[in-house]
Design goal:
This is gamma-glutamyl-gamma-aminobutyrate hydrolase. It catalyses: 4-(gamma-L-glutamylamino)butanoate + H2O = 4-aminobutanoate + L-glutamate. Belongs to the peptidase C26 family. By secondary structure, the chain is of the alpha/beta class. It contains seven helices and 13 strands. The chain has a single domain (5-246), classed as 3-Layer(aba) Sandwich (Rossmann fold), CATH 3.40.50.880. The protein has helices at residues 26-35, 52-58, 89-105, 114-122, 148-151, 165-170, 232-246, and strands at residues 5-9, 11-15, 19-23, 39-43, 61-64, 109-112, 127-128, 156-160, 174-177, 184-185, 192-197, 203-208, 215-218. A nine-stranded mixed β-sheet has the order 4-1-5-6-13-12-11-8-9, with helices on both faces.
Length: 249
């Protein structure tokens, strides 16, 4: 029996300021390949790839990756400001309907950073462009200096809901995570259940209420060093188990 396929949502990049490409970070590919039992497949975040139904036929689950461009604020009823940064409307056009349809059909989905924010917008929530400006919040952005390893180091705890899905998977009510994001959830969507908060009350872990399949997302980056991280490893393994079960493996 062939292995299941997990689609990893790509991001737009430009090589040498001239050549447009779609790319996925190697850490995302490695996490899927080593921990889920599935074949990782790059899914270009461009609408011309095909309809949502086509993507669902091609993949048994999806990882909605992080990315520098942000979800366009018009999609959650806000005006554009300089603080919102860059946008990728092609990715918005692919991911938001894909998330909703996957959840409706019980297809496993795992959101990371921007993917976490896409989950919230897909289900009616809003985002804040600079959560560090909210009174009492800390700066969650990527540290400007240091090696890539230092940028992805653990930076704060996340307190998880007792008895929630994350606590059951991780076997703990408090975990340590990295932090590399500027935006965050402002108002959660009606079906979005926040199961994890940073010490400054920033939402960090969510699930979709009444989802018939795996539908979980985190604001941090579990793909980094996933095989060796005590939080990342069980999350990807649980996601992979859900994908395999739905694919009949």
């Amino acid at each position: 029996m062939p292995r299941p396929v997990i689609g990893i949502i790509g991001n737009a990049h430009t090589i040498n300021d001239q050549y447009s490409v779609q790319a996925v970070g190697l850490s995302n590919i490695e996490a899927v390949a080593t921990l889920t039992g599935a074949i990782p497949l790059l899914v270009p975040a461009v609408p011309m790839v095909g309809a949502v139904a086509d993507l669902i036929c091609a993949c048994d689950g999806f990882v909605f990756t992080g990315g520098r461009p942000n979800v366009h604020p018009s999609l959650y009823g806000h005006e554009v400001t300089e603080k919102h940064g860059a946008f990728d409307p092609d990715r918005d056009a692919v991911t938001l309907p894909l998330i909703r349809e996957c959840v409706a059909r019980g297809i496993p989905v795992f959101g990371i950073c921007r993917g976490f924010q896409e989950f919230n917008v897909a289900f009616g929530g809003t985002l804040h462009p600079e959560i560090r400006e909210i009174p009492g919040r800390i700066n969650h952005r990527m540290p400007p200096d240091g090696t890539i390893e230092e940028k992805f180091e653990h930076r704060h705890t996340v307190r998880l809901s007792p008895g929630g899905q994350f606590t059951r998977i991780l076997g703990a009510e408090e975990v340590m995570v990295n932090s590399l994001h500027g935006q965050g959830i402002l108002d959660k969507g009606p079906r979005v259940v926040i199961e994890g908060y940073a010490p400054d009350t920033t939402p960090e872990a969510i699930v979709i209420e009444a989802a018939p399949g795996f539908a979980m997302a985190v604001q941090w980056h579990p793909e980094w060093n996933a095989a060796n991280d005590p939080v990342s490893r069980p999350l990807f393994q649980a996601f992979g188990a859900a994908v395999g079960a739905r694919a009949g493996h």
